[in-house]
Amino acid sequence: MSVRRSLVWLGLTPEPEQELPAAVAALRAPAAGRPAPALITAERRRVERLVLRGTQRDWLRYLGEVTALVVQAADGPPAAGRGAALLAAEVVLDHHRMLIGLPGSGYDRTAAQRHALERAVARLTPRDAHAEPRSTV
Fold this sequence. Notes:
Layout: H1 15-28, H2 37-53, H3 56-75, H4 82-98, H5 106-109, H6 111-124
């Protein structure tokens, strides 16, 4: 890697590093439910490696994989992994929206992912979450 590589992408937000490993491990798990601790650890190490040694292109490629997992979960039957998919979708979508403030083509390159994530969030959000709260008076 070049000593002059851009590191500005690392300053966006810590949420993907913090929130994605467990959510992505749940989406990658062979069975619905809680992923094995080893899967979460492996995902956390992968994210750590990307942040410490990767490039913005590597990071966006990883987030593209996460987007594909989210879309797959949103298109599938209702299952226990939908909560993890919604969390991952919201985290990646927020990240991709913030790319507009960075130099380079990251924002433009993630346009299709943003669109797919917006549709996935709409499908994954429980219907009652959109309802007006009822008055208890």
